[in-house]
Amino acid sequence: MMGEQGKTEEGGGGGGGGKELGMTSQSSANQSPSLRNETVSNYHPYPPPLAKYEDIVSSPKLFMGTLEKLHAVMGTKFM
Prior knowledge:
Order of helices and strands: HHH
Number of strands: 0
Number of domains: 2
Helix content: over 70%
Shape: flat
Structural class: mainly alpha
């Protein structure tokens, strides 16, 4: 009986902690989707490609030109 009680206490303690975490996740998850949808729909990490990889590799001028444009669009300093 003592062994069974110990298992019940451990299981109950671990299960209760898991339930609490699950409830916390659900409450934050209920708030996040609307914020995530707005953020995701407005968030574009990189602009679409201006050239194909093969073209960039074969032409140093095209590489430098597209790199400069990328930095201009991203608002970062280039050289």
